[in-house]
Amino acid sequence: MSFELHPQLANDTTVLGHFPLTVALLHKDKAVPWVILVPKRANLKELHHLPMQEQQQFLLESQAVSQALEATFQPDKLNLGALGNMVPQLHIHHIARFKDDVAWPGPVWGNTKGEFRSEEEQQAIATRIGNVLGLSSLFTKA
Predict the structure, then answer these.
(1) Closest by CA position to 92, among listed 63, 115, 129
(2) In the chain, helix, strand, coil percent, each to 5?
(3) Residue 90: its pLDDT value, please?
(4) How distant, in Å, are the alpha carbons of 31, 93, 117 from that of 82?
(5) Which helix (H) or strand (E) holds 15?
């Protein structure tokens, strides 16, 4: 079976580009900059189900996203999380958090207004993050 992005992730995000292992997605929620990495592997639910070499590759790609969010937005904190309760496909959230964001200091899940950015706002943020990620030899823009 080939990799397919879960429909909920496809609906809630814009593709930023691809790493060797993962697809990088920008969440449309306007509350905070929020990138999701999804390993391009079929039927994968847990990070530890990847072979060790791919777990290490994931860490390299996650580091690139984390550094890009820090460089682009200078957040007060980066939150990383893998819940998967609503969407079972393995996906790891990288969320730039700010002391003045709508959900601070709590988690973003269930604590934002659930409003999506306009297409123009989404594209502007995607371009900003994509430009920084594009500096990595691992990343290919969408």
Answers:
(1) 63
(2) 30, 25, 45
(3) 97
(4) 19, 6, 23
(5) strand 13-18
DSSP state of 48: G
Spatial separation of the C-alpha atoms in residues 56 and 15, rounded to whole Å: 23
What pTM, to 2 d.p., does this model score?
Answer: 0.96
Q: Which two tokens stand for residue 108?
A: 């973003």
pLDDT in tens, 110-141: 899 999 999 999 999 999 999 999 988 899 99
- Report residue 84 CA to chain centroid gap: 13
Q: Write the CA distances from 80 to 36, 64, 140, integer angstroms.
A: 9, 13, 22
Calculate helix-pair angle for 52-73, 119-133, nearest 10 degrees: 120
Q: Which two tokens stand for residue 48?
A: 């530890």
Q: Is 113 exposed, middle or buried (0-12, 13-18, 19+ CB in 10 A)?
A: exposed
